[in-house]
Amino acid sequence: MYTPTARTTPTRLRERTSHDRAAAHAVLDEAYHCTLGFTVDGEPRLLPTLHVRVGDTLYLHGSTGSRPLLAAREPAGLPICVSVTLLDGLVYARSQFHHSANYRSVVAHGVARLVTDAAEKSAVLTALVEKVGAGRSAESRPPSRKELAETAVLALPLREVSVRARTGGVSEEPADLALPYWAGVVPLRLAPGLPESDAGVTASVPTYLRPPRSPWLDPVPMRGAHVLLEPLDLAHADELFDATDDPEVWRHLGSPRPADATGVRELVAEALAAHHRGGRVPWVQRCAVTGAVIGTTSYYEVDPDRGAVAIGYTFLGRPWWRSAVNTEAKLLLLTRAFEELGARRVVWHTDIRNERSQRAIERLGTTREGVLRMHRQRPDGSWRDTVQYSMIVDEWPEAQRQLRERLRSGAAMA
Questions:
Q1: CA 113, 117, 122: angle at the middle one, nearest 5?
Q2: How far apart (Å, rounded) are the C-alpha atoms in residues 184 and 81?
Q3: Which of 29, 45, 49 is nearest to 37 (CA)?
Q4: What CATH number does residue 35 fall under?
Q5: End-to-end CA distance of the chain
Q6: Where is the signal peptide, in residue numbers (predicted)?
Q7: What digits encode the pLDDT tens for the residues 3-34?
Q8: What's the helix, strand, coil split of the chain in %, to 5?
Q9: Do residues 206 and 133 make contact, with C-beta atoms less than 8 angstroms apart?
Q10: Strands 308-316 and 345-351, how do they pair?
């Protein structure tokens, strides 16, 4: 516990305030930025900045030319106040007076010092980078001597600290409970969006920027003798366009044939956005011999509760049709579904006009279940009937045996 002081003891709503050390650290660690308060020539100043907590010290990032950093050079240090707030929800009451917010906040007072020790400064800047992504410091260039000279760090010992929070529902006057207005809480949370690669970046989005997911939504790399499956990324778009730039590849697909690599990039972005929403798990297919990108495939309609998943959104460069690549890719995906994820049912959908695709799916050992009429719209605006196939877990052992035998013998491939 932090020792209460006159500055950290509230005058009202005392039940919302605590001096719990663990609670204060939790808020400081979750928040990415804070507000730094100080005075200049007797006037208040507020500065939004980045922070990181290391032990019981709060470090604040700034420029060597900024006013608070210049003032902190003085031997006496710089008196400051730092505040952090996490907004957790909006509270709607029947009366306007009782509208409120759920939140967690920390206020810290003290005298900050300028960090001049090179080792301490380097460690703090590394901690700041690690805060935005564990492992990021190893995957980025460290600051140069010039950049270090232009960067300043303030250190505030955490001694005079208070935590304030509101949780729960609506507080109403008894007389207002009968009013015909909606009341309740709208939760709020800070959630990362889909990472957007900078122009020219060819590296895949790092693991620490991918949200933790159910294993069903994890595009784990898979390797066979003929094909490699790895998580699809925007960096694959150019090669994917080159491999699939053939009207036959796109004849029965749900998207029009891209005119250039930009069109493929848009399709990849759609797949990644669907994965971010939890609706699709996309892989790129590579030739295991050459390493070249040759196509893509996905899980979709992922339903862990029912143990069901669909395989589709597959397009493959024409030179690899009826080769071992597609058969082995399906074998890898089926093995993961049935043996690693515990699926009970795997589904395929294809256009009723696409007889080649239907024969390929049937060669996998599936069962044709029927036709979904006017199921999806084609790129030309017409409505397609979709043929649905499935394989259930009881059929998997024999299907697996036959697929492996087909790969060994070089028989007609899917």
A1: 105
A2: 34
A3: 45
A4: 2.30.110.10
A5: 66
A6: none
A7: 999 998 888 888 889 999 999 999 999 999 99
A8: 30, 35, 35
A9: yes
A10: parallel
Residues 6+ away with beta carbon under 8 Å from 231:
204, 219, 221, 282, 283, 284
The answer on 227 and 177 residing in a single domain is no
Establish if 62 belongs to a structural domain: yes
pLDDT in the model for residue 70: 65
φ and ψ at 143, to 5 degrees? -65, 145
Q: Where does residue 116 rank: exposed (0-12), middle (13-18), buried (19+ CB within 10 A)? A: exposed
In whole angstroms, give the CA distance from residue 322 to residue 313. 17
Q: Where are the alpha helices (DSSP H) in 107-217?
A: 118-132, 145-150
CA atoms of 256 and 354, how far apart (whole Å)? 15
- Same domain? 174 vs 267: no
The parent domain of residue 80 ranges over: 14-187
Same domain, 135 and 176: yes
Number of domains in the chain: 2
Cβ contacts of 146 within 8 Å, gap of 6 or more: none
Same domain, 256 and 147: no
Q: What is the pTM of this model?
A: 0.74
Dmax (CA) of the chain:
86
Note whether 239 and 305 are same-domain residues: yes
State whether 235 and 117 are in the same domain: no
User: Is 180 exposed, middle or buried (CB count within 10 Å of its CB: 0-12, 13-18, 19+)?
Assistant: exposed
pLDDT in tens, 293-330: 999 999 999 999 999 999 999 999 999 998 899 999 99
